[in-house]
Amino acid sequence: MTERGEKYRRRLQQLIDEVTVYPVSCERLAEGRTDEQWLEEVLRGGARIVQLRDKDSSDRRLLEKAKHFRQKTLEAGVLFLVNDRLDIALLSDADGIHLGQDDLPAEEVLRLAPEMIIGVSCNTVEQAMRLGEKEKKGILTISYYNIGPIYPTETKEGLSEFIGPEAVSLFSSYVTLPFTVMGGIKQQHLRELVGLGARRFALVTALTKAPDIAGETARWIEEIKQARSGLYG
Description:
The chain is α/β, with parallel strands linked by helices. The protein has a single domain, classed as Aldolase class I (TIM Barrel). It has helices spanning 6-18, 35-44, 59-76, 86-91, 106-112, 125-137, 166-172, 190-195, 205-208, 213-228; strands at residues 21-23, 49-52, 79-83, 96-99, 117-122, 144-147, 179-182, 201-203. It has an 8-stranded parallel beta sheet. The longest helix is centred in the first third of the chain and has 18 residues, at 59-76. It starts with 5 loop residues before the first helix and ends in a 5-residue tail after the last helix. The model has no long low-confidence stretch (mean pLDDT 95).
């Protein structure tokens, strides 16, 4: 197993301790605003982690964006992850990478980038069970996983199925790692999802389409903190 050092442990602890809202970029669904503009606003709103997700730009443009994200997040003391692209994550010195089920195997990413946070999407009970088995055997290579889509979402083109809020408690009964939840989540869902065990909420259109991105980011952070503190009702 690849040895992970102090830098990795600090990054993971920051993820565990500080993250409530996990903003994920999507320029295509940002009402004409660029990823750079989106980044400025979510940082101003208090986000402690951001993910650059861009499946449309050229490689050169994506790297340019990633280096900009890295500089701005370093200045703010915020974690920066890249979706899918290990090459871009390495070249921009990102803190981590998020992988889908059809992306690079986490084991190979760990071999090349042992200090990176590695997240994976988890969309079915079977995937959660496999993660749980690896965890029990001590061979798990990832840092966190994402449960979703919880509700119907427009972020994933052609996706008609969603797994429902019950997946939060079900999946987390198999895997004890930190996790995020994602997919069609609105603020009115927070109380139920927190009650089921959710603590970190990955958001795309809830922020990219907001008229006031910074204000909406701050509102989500406050609402999640209140839900986590049991201040609702």
